Amino acid sequence: MSAEATNPEAHPEARPELRRRGRTRLDLRRLGRAALLGPTSRDRLPDAIGHVAEAHRAHHPDADLSVLRRAYLLAETSHRGQMRKSGEPYITHPLAVTLILAELGAETTTLTASLLHDTVEDTDVTLDQVGEEFGDEVRFIVDGVTKVEKIDYGAAAEPETFRKMLVATGNDVRVMSIKLADRLHNMRTLGVMRPEKQARIAKVTRDVLIPLAERLGVQALKTELEDLVFSILHPEEYERTRALIAAHAGERDPLPAIADSVRSVLRDAGIAAEVQVRPRHFVSVHRIARKRGELRGSDFGRILVLVGENADCYAVLGEMHTCFTPVVSEFKDFIAAPKFNLYQSLHTAVATHEGYVAEVIVRTRQMHRVAEAGVVALGNPYTTGSPPEATDCDEERVDPTRPGWLSRLLDWQQSAPDPDTFWTVLRAELAQDREITVFRADGGTLGLPAGASCIDAAYAQHGEAAHGCIGARVNGRLTSLSSPLSDGDTVQLLLAHDASSGPAAEWLDHARTPAARIAISSWLQAHPDPATAPTSAARAPLSVVGARGGGGNAVADLPDAPVRLAGCCTPVPPDAVAGFVVRGGAVTVHRVQCAAVARMRAVGRTSVAVHWRATADCRVTLLAESFGRPHLLADLTEAIAREGVEVVSATVEPPVEQRVRHTYTLQLPDATGLAALMRAMRDVPGVYDVSRA
Fold first, then answer.
1. Greatest Cα pair distance in the chain
2. Alpha-carbon distance 636 to 680, whole Å?
3. Rounded to whole angstroms, how far apart are CA atoms 460 and 465?
């Protein structure tokens, strides 16, 4: 909750008489007039938000500040008498949160909602009054933040807490922005709390809110939150890092001299650029120290180069790599391939003549703004369309700036069977730091985390219908469902028509997205298979052998010699054939193209002329390759029977990566029906190839 307000009237449950009467509807005009009777005149902003207005005007010179003035007057009057646990007037908290957002470049609507974000929670102001005074947009955002503030952050409630938080904030990313700024100010003033409460809040911040800040691209908030959490949860390592930075401050820093050299190089090349030295924050220094051991002077910061256009970024890169020695392994192009959180920059590292290695970041000024502020820099996502009507605030709205990962979270959280599962997969999802885009066969796209497989694509596209997925084609080539996908792949998913089909337990080994893992686990729990043999036990091929045998309608020019059709090539009329006498005096018949013919001749086997009888029946062996699914063998044998063909023998090999090989020896009444039979077998769902053995 906003929570640090100590005014008992803010909580009706603490005052029975207030709970019986209900909340009193306030007269906003009366409150406004009362506030105006103070030292501030009607023609100027209250001094308390002068710094907010200044920061806001720096990003939005034409912004209308009158709405901020009215929002502050309402917030100050409503919170009057409430104090934070630090002893400060409570109004300092919404002011600090609003200043954080103003410095990031948030638009006026977000700042207005930020000033009011605790009024509905902690005062007698109602949502309807906020809507009447400031409009539906502000009402919607304040309601979203209020829902988040009502969440119990107790350790036992954390999984369900963040399920509610995602639902409450997912409909408008500005709600998340205010929540993150709110948490940052609370973390800054956390020293008044008991150590155990500080640790609990810091852990929640570390596990979910910092990854959310990373996902939303708000690096300015993320880095400060990381340092504050680091100081609380790892005080000894924090002190060592602080001492390391303090010791470096007293030494010669090589980065300013390197920055001067970069300025000179770019000036000589005629590239207009701003070159800065950006110190690393505490956690970044700590990570570098663990990675490299002893730190050098250039490890405590990075060089930032800001230019005007995208093309200038690559021009800077060319000059840097020409005039300095590049460290090739450190080069990354996030302009051509932006990160999932909108981040764009060129990263490189160069070595100087003095032996220092300096990391360099190159970006445009607009990229820099987005890198620091993320979704906050996008402004009002609804200004391009008609404003939303005054509806129930629980109603879903489509946010054009909502990242794909956030939409996925909102989708799969509805399917999570229990809070613990939700918590586990939420943390796994937030830990993903890269996203890929794959194309569907119908031309649409799917956003997936890096490392996702065809299984993940199937559930992302088809939901629970993906239980019947039997295979996939990636870039036109048949592949197993476990195959990982790469950015830009085209995926065609093959679904079985059998409603009883379901996923195999092995799918969980290759599923990366929470939606896929939850759906597969739920299906497996609902369809237990007690008869399943241990995976370590090797299964023998299933064989069904008929009573008939012999050489079919092949006749050898060797009286009384038994004739057998070779299983390696399964000749049928009118194939050109050759016969060879084998042990026991039998004659084995092969197609002349069969590799066994050359081997027979090489070892000196006696050749015998063979011809076909006038009868049209024949025996043939076919190899069917398919994706594994229930009832596949029954469907194949039914297709064979419909063609009037007799099964002499059938062998089914154990599945390998969900692919199954079937070998059938068949007695055909007419050899001319072979092509139609093979087509009928290929038409069976799951079968992707049929060939003669």
1. 125
2. 9
3. 10
pLDDT band at 405 (very low <50, low <70, confident <90, very high): low
Decide if 686 contacts 496 (C-beta within 8 A).
yes
CA distances from 665 to 252, 475, 492 (A): 83, 34, 32
Whether 687 contacts 636, CB under 8 Å? yes
Helix residue ranges per DSSP H, 171-299: 173-188, 195-204, 210-215, 219-233, 235-249, 255-268, 282-292
Torsion of CA 413, 418, 424, 428, to 10 degrees: -20
In whole angstroms, how far apart are CA 169 and each of 110, 177, 435, 641? Answer: 14, 9, 22, 59
Amino acid letter, 670:
D
Q: Write out the catalytic residue numbers.
A: 121-122
Per-position DSSP letters for 612-652, written without gaps between them: E-SS--EEEEEEEEEE--TTHHHHHHHHHHHTT-EEEEEEE
Report pLDDT digits (tens) over 574-608: 778 888 887 667 788 888 888 888 888 888 888 88
DSSP state of 592: T
C-alpha span between 218 and 110 (Å, rounded): 15
CA-to-CA distance for 187 and 3, rounded, in angstroms? 13
- The SS3 call for residue 202 is helix
Q: How far apart are CA 179 and CA 204, in angstroms?
A: 13
Instruction: Sort strands 490-495 and 469-474 into parallel, antiparallel or unpaired.
Output: antiparallel
* Spatial distance between the Cα atoms of 528 and 521, rounded to a whole number of angstroms: 11
Instruction: Check: CB of residue 453 under 8 Å from CB of residue 483.
Output: yes
Classify 206 as helix, strand or coil. helix
Q: Which of 409, 374, 391, 341 is nearest to 110 (CA)?
A: 374
CB-CB neighbours of 532 under 10 Å: 9
- Collapsed DSSP state (helix, strand, coil) of residue 362: strand
Element (H, E) at 164: helix 158-170
Integer Cα distance of 367 and 304 in angstroms: 12
Q: Which of 39-43, 508-512, 549-553 has the lowest mean pLDDT?
A: 39-43
Cα–Cα distance measured from residue 691 to residue 440, given in angstroms and rounded to the nearest whole number: 29
